Each structure stands twice: as structure tokens, then as C-alpha cells.
């Protein structure tokens, strides 16, 4: 094994599994409201439109503090700031379980977004400290497989909690939020104790390995910017940053529609399905998405190509969403939902590698935060749109179709990216 490959292996073993676990905890607290809705909506008399807004309030809170949070992380270090984020959102996630009406739920979800803001773009920025551009799609995908893994494992567990946990006269959906919020506090403490802020602090690398990695990354940063220092204002006015942000926004409308509404879509397929059965069925598309995320990112890195590795999965997902309203069997519905999952998950590795391909340092912190914050607004728009339309049209079908149109629009925008997205902007 070459010295370079040995360093990559050490980083892969020491950094990526820990970040993966952190994102499992984060994503679980973000999405478990979709399962809680199976019993929570009835208890709190929450309408479809109100539930869409409950989901969306998280992303509105998340949007507001993305950029300052990433700049703070760049200044004070990942270990302290990410640990703070985890502990804060853990307490807010648990407090959400005690909401007594929809207004309190709105406030709790908004505060959860504020508490978690900066975590995801912060981790993406943190990965640029450790991986060169030609390695980033795979590194990002190995971190982000936490999304489908969380759904694969979390969906059945959430379903079982809803069916079986009714301790201390508290509703099962409340226990769902409590039990799945506690790990954030535990892992926040672990982050402070275990996560090195930068390669210079990595005791698992030798001094020679640290110096070699720092030199290689510094050379790549200089190539990205052509020796120029990009200010915060330069980054905020960069056309490619906003192009990628809009691609992410239209993709997130479809992705979060899938994630938050799939339990209710599957539940509606048969009145005899228990919450546990729904959880098992929901896990199937996410398993397909896990495979897609790894396969598409590996192909993208190997070919050093991003544009078509974004557009093709998005087009597949959009077409599947549009076809969903024409089928009524469980088998075909799960098959189409699996195609949606293939597209929305396969998109992530090449997309976020594109976001860091032309930025470095503080400009990368700002650019990645802009891209992810605008993209996350799609997490507000998509679920709320489906909930709003469910009140006035044929159930969720029109909302799901519009999510499909949004994914096709995202695919079109991806095709308009430069042919080689790895070159300097």
C-alpha cells in the first residue's frame, strides 16, 4: 500500500464512521416527525396542511443560521462547535415531545432547526480538511449513507415504538421523540472528546503524514482559486454557487416529500397495515437509495464527471413520482418509491462534491452554507405543498406529482452546469 493510500485508509477508518454515526442521530431527529404523525396528528387534531407546516418549520429555522454557524466552525474548530450543536438539538428534540398543541409544535420544530443549523454544511466543510476533490464524492456518500441507513433502521424501530411503548401514561409518539432525541446529547459529549478539529490535531497520523496531507490540500486549494482569495462577498455573488443552490432547492422539494410523506403514503395503501408493517415497507426504498448513493458517487469520482451523474438520477426520480398516482397496488407503489429513492439519494455525492470543487477556506464555509441553506428551503416547500394540496385535491396525489415536476426541473438545471464541474470557476 502506498503512503498516500495508507493515509486515506487511516482517515476513512477514524473520521468517516464517527461522522456517519453523528448524521444518523441528526437525521433521525429531523425525520421521526413523519412517523410520529401516524398517531400524533389525531391526538393533537393536526390537519394535513398543518402537518406540512410542522415539517417545514424545521427548515425555516435551519435556513436562518447556516452561514454564521459555518463561519463560527471555521474560526473556533469543528470539535467544539459540532459538539455544541448536537447537545443543543438533543435537548430541543426531547422538549418537542411535550408539545400540547400545534402552535407549540410549530415553535419546537422551528427551534430544532435553529439548534441543528450548521451541522450538515459544517460536516461537508469539515470533510474538505481531509479529502481531496477526486475523493470527495465517495467520502460524502459514505457520510451521507446515514440518510438511507437511518430510514432503513429507524423506520421499523419507530413503527414498533408507536405500537408498543406507552409508558408513564405518555403517548407512544411522545416516547418516540424522547428516545430518539437522547443519543444527540450522548454523541455531543463524545464529539467534544474524540473529534480532531483539523488534520494538524490528528494523533492517529504521523507528523510526516500530517505534513504531506496538509501540503497536498494546500496545493489543491491554490488550484481551485487560481491563487486568488475569495471574500465572503465574492462568494455570495458567485453565479455557480447560486446555480447549485437552486438545483439543491428543487431536488430537496422531491427528496423531503419522499422522506416525510412516505409513511402516510404507504399507510394509505391498506387499512390493515400496522405501524410496524408500514415501517418495514418504508425501509425498502431507502435500502435502494443506499446502494444508489454509493454506486453513483463511485462512478462520478472515477470519471471525474458530475453533471450527468446529477441529472440522470434526478430524471429517474421525477418520472417515478409522476407515475405514482397511476398505480394502486402495494408492490408497484413500493417499486416506484424505490426509483424515487434511487434518484434523490444517488444525487447527493456528486452534488456536494461539486459544491466544494471551486471554493476553499472561508469562501468554502460560506459557499457550502449558502448552497445547503437554500436547498433546505425545499424541505420547507415540498412537505408543506403536499399537505396544502391534500386538503383540496385527490389526497396527496397532486402534491406528489408536483414534487416529481420539481425533480425534473432540478435535472434540467443540472444539465446546464459546466461540462467539467471540477475546474475552477
Radius of gyration: 21 Å
Q: Return the string of H and E elements.
A: HHHHHHHHHHHHHHHHHHHH
- Contiguous runs where pLDDT drops below 50 for at least 5 residues: 421-425
Strand runs, count: 0
SS field, number of helical segments: 20
Please tell me the total number of domains: 1
Please estimate the helix content: over 70%
Principal-axis shape: globular
User: Per CATH, which architecture?
Assistant: Up-down Bundle
CATH topology assignment: Growth Hormone, Chain: A
The name of the CATH superfamily reads MFS general substrate transporter like domains
Chain-averaged pLDDT: 88
What is the rounded distance between the termini?
A: 34 Å
Largest sheet features = none
Strand content: under 5%
CATH class wording: Mainly Alpha
Please give a structural write-up:
The chain has 425 residues and is an all-alpha fold. The chain has a single domain (3-415), classed as MFS general substrate transporter like domains (Growth Hormone, Chain: A). It is 80% helix and 0% strand. It has helices at residues 3-14, 16-31, 33-43, 48-64, 66-76, 78-96, 102-116, 119-127, 133-144, 146-164, 172-194, 207-225, 232-236, 239-267, 275-303, 307-324, 330-346, 348-355, 361-390, 397-415. It is globular and about 60 Å long. The protein starts with a helix and ends in a 10-residue tail after the last helix. 54% of the residues are buried. The model is unreliable at 421-425 (pLDDT under 50).
